[in-house]
Amino acid sequence: MTLLRLDGVHASYGEAQVLHDISISVARGERVAILGRNGVGKTTVVNACLGIARLRKGTIAFAGQTASAIRHFTAARAGIAVVPQGRRIVPGLTVRENLLLGAAVGRSGRWSFETVCELFPILRERADTPGTAMSGGQQQMLAIGRALMANPDLLVLDEPSEGLAPVIVDELGETLVGLAAGETSILLIEQNFSLVHRVAERYYVMSKGAVVEEGRLEGLSRESLKKHVAV
Ligand SMILES: Nc1ncnc2c1ncn2[C@@H]1O[C@H](COP(=O)(O)OP(=O)(O)OP(=O)(O)O)[C@@H](O)[C@H]1O
């Protein structure tokens, strides 16, 4: 069953149109990647879903609701949680407090402080230290844990591998595959081919605000991507 569907989406910031006729879907429990170089509009796909970029044409539907009903402040309540680029750990708050922010939306499900700490034990060990005092990899776990605390149906990750050592990226890949096995759909925005390869079942490649290639991961080679993505 389709969870998220964008059909013929044109989206803009003010007068500047960024997305041109984008059609993308994510099924329940599916792991989908959006690839493409810097500035091609990957984050804007998410921003269009959240009502941050303006939908000029086309439709966006999530779990049977049209996008006009989903706005930034209600997306988490509708079941979309975003792990933003750069992680955005809130300075001055402890690890525990950062996690609890994610739960503020009030959706129930399998994720709580306890279950998130079972997934990422370091978050329990560091629960009372400032979130921003942790390493990059640990902050990424915190950002993912915070998003899970909202018990989302769709977890969107915007360049989660940025700044992480390859071994940490491999661990992250395993975690994300495990989450989808638990029925959380994954939309992974990435330039790191090896993470995409490990996690995604289907992919879309974007260039200049449009989808220029799509398919199943088995059909995606490093060579075919070189012209669109940093590998
Ligand atoms: N809030 C905004 N207001 C105006 N223009 C924006 C805004 N956010 C992004 N843009 C512009 O939209 C275009 C697409 O940006 P977007 O962030 O979606 O790309 P991206 O593929 O996610 O790249 P990156 O990996 O660098 O984040 C860029 O030209 C960018 O400058």
Automatic annotation (TrEMBL):
The keyword Transmembrane helix does not apply. It holds the Pfam family ABC_tran. Residues 4-231 form the ABC transporter domain. It comes from the Bacteria. GO terms for biological process: L-amino acid transport. CDD domains: ABC_TM1139_LivF_branched. This is ABC transporter ATP-binding protein. It comes from Phreatobacter aquaticus.
